[in-house]
Design a protein that fits this description.
Blueprint: E1 3-8, H1 13-22, E2 28-33, H2 36-49, E3 53-58, H3 64-77, E4 79-85, H4 96-115, E5 123-127, H5 139-145, H6 153-161, H7 167-190, E6 195-201, E7 204-205, H8 207-215, H9 218-225, E8 241-242, H10 243-254, E9 265-268, H11 272-279
Parallel strand pairs: 1-2, 1-4, 2-3, 4-5, 5-6, 6-9, 7-8
Helix pairs in contact: 1-10, 3-4, 4-7
Length: about 280
């Protein structure tokens, strides 16, 4: 039976890099993104260079009806092997409600929707962020994050923040929520022989990475602090990592070589969180 890999955010920096690497290990790829033109281009490029069959679906990954269609399409293509979930919104891209809907509730809905198609060896990797590792978190916040599909999630956030949450703080909590969600989803996926992981990128050279660098001066200091830089000295950005760094880690984590790794977060940040922790 054809093995199927679903990549969300496939028009984006990390999504397109992941799709390119995953194409060599599965029979069929289903790419999805809300950016129609970008997705068409990504599918066209991949189709020209890969042996895997490439399909694409445009839509909002956080919309329940679209998600239903996506899962149906994936299951019609063959056996569900991998889900690489990179679609997301950063604080400069949207207001707090959309960030919460896409970056937290949407991830919960996605993992839930694919659950019944999980077979032995199926793996999901959801992109979290180093933001989900920064600063203090308390049990009251975690209790809210641990119910990402609660009908009154927005109200609970407003109560937590005692008013209108800001997009940056919402993003940070949403990504912590993803880390916690993947830990718990690994239990139910594990019962069917599947694995779930979150992956937290550091500062990565993509459209999103560049936008946040411009809008957040603190990111310059974080880039300086990052112990490992994989972008060459001739690069036109101070961002230390590239989409290929993330794709290589995703490819490994989805492979049988990683078959005992599940229910945890993998930081792919060039050592940034370690360096920041040492600063106190
Ligand atoms: N770039 C970084 O430095 C960085 C750092 C930490 C975490 N991340 C996380 O990594 C992931 C990938 O980021 P990237 O840098 O590749 O970003 P990107 O902006 O290059 O790509 C994100 C893609 O997601 C798509 N998308 C956004 N909302 C969507 C929705 N509701 N439905 C469908 N598609 C949607 C966009 O159209 C875009 O193509 C994100 O979850 C981001 O939060 C990025």
């Amino acid at each position: 039976m054809t093995s199927v890999c679903v990549v969300t955010g496939a028009a984006g920096g990390m999504g397109s890099a992941c799709a390119r690497l995953m194409a060599s290990s599965v029979g069929a790829l289903l790419l999805t993104d809300r950016d129609e033109k970008g997705l068409e281009l990504a599918a066209e490029q991949l189709g020209a260079e890969s042996k895997a069959s490439i399909s694409a679906m445009v839509g909002d990954i956080a919309a329940p009806a679209f998600l239903e269609d996506l899962v149906l399409r994936a299951s019609a293509m063959g056996e569900f092997r991998t889900l690489v979930h990179t679609a997301g919104l950063s604080p400069s891209m949207a207001g707090w409600r959309d960030i919460l809907r896409v970056d937290l509730s949407g991830v919960a809905r996605l993992l839930h929707a694919f659950h019944e198609h999980v077979v032995s060896g199926s793996t999901a990797i959801c992109l979290a962020s180093i933001a989900g590792h920064l600063g203090e978190f308390d049990s009251e916040m975690d209790a809210v994050l641990d119910e990402p599909l609660a009908e009154d999630l927005e109200e609970r956030f407003e109560t937590l923040f005692e008013g209108e949450p800001d997009p940056g703080a919402t993003y940070r909590l949403a990504k912590r929520g993803v880390i916690r969600l993947c830990e718990s989803a690994a239990v139910s996926w594990g019962e069917r022989g599947g694995r779930v992981l979150s992956l937290s990128p550091g500062l990565i050279d993509t459209e999103m990475g560049r936008l946040e660098l411009v809008n957040n001066p603190i990111k310059h200091r974080m880039a300086e602090l990052t112990p490992v830089h994989t972008l060459s000295d001739g690069s036109d950005t101070i961002l230390p990592g590239c989409a290929q760094d993330i794709a290589s880690a995703v490819e490994f984590l989805c492979s049988d070589r990683a078959s005992f790794i599940s229910g945890c977060d993998i930081r792919v940040d060039g050592g940034l969180i370690g360096a920041m922790n040492r600063l106190g």
